[in-house]
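input
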Amino acid sequence: MAEATAGVAAPRRRRRRSLFFAIGASLLALFVFLAAFGPLIAPYDPYAQDLLALLDPPSAAHWLGADQVGRDILSRLIVGTRTTLMIALVSVALAGVMGVALGLVAGYFGGAADRAITIFIDLLLTVPNLVLAIAIVSAVGASAVGLIVAITASFVPPLARLVRGRVMEVREEDFVSAVRTIGMSRARILVRHVLPNAASVIVIELSLLAGQAVLVASALGFLGLGVQPPDPEWGAMLGASRELLSVAPHLVIAPGLAITLLVFAFNMLGDGLRDKLDPNFSG
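output
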């Protein structure tokens, strides 16, 4: 009876996670489209001010309303998609390169290299991601580059630790021992055998980190440590509107919903990838 129930439940889980993947991929494709063609499809110039439309609520003229200086919120959200998505993807890509490299070296070679890298990772992990990012962006400067540096530095330690653990598992497998006995170099073993077998874990983690990158970038923008006005960025739009929440809630709702949907898209994509790439996952 239990086996029959499990046999019915497994296809249901697969269908559910395939749906998650489809939803996440579709939403992310929409955001990528907006990032690529935003300036061409935005109904207004995102920098243009209309003093007759100050704090206008959503209407036929301004679908999501206008902000405190009369700029169209929908246009600023559309154009700002490129900035938010670029910061998240570049940060995660750089963190992926550095974190994977550190994890591969520490997990495969062990010894003094492993101890040094592990101490460095553990030291950075004692500081919460957002606090570390705030400290770094304060030193580098409030800008898109500062955000990328801060997010990258805060994401490298957890990714390196994850990769290190996976590599330590893979290096004990029989096929790694076999290629080691035939004299294959360590670098070639890492690239051709160890890294491909850790790739699924890395891809899943990077997709989930992208959602976190959006949140961190938005939080720093909200605090005034991100992209500076008048450039449209979702976190900065939230920060500039927080004092007007009771008067014009649409100023906060629109960018907040955009952030939520983008994070949701990355999380759904990550869940779908985990189901497709990790056959041992049964949650």
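quick obs: DSSP finds nine helices and no strands in the chain.
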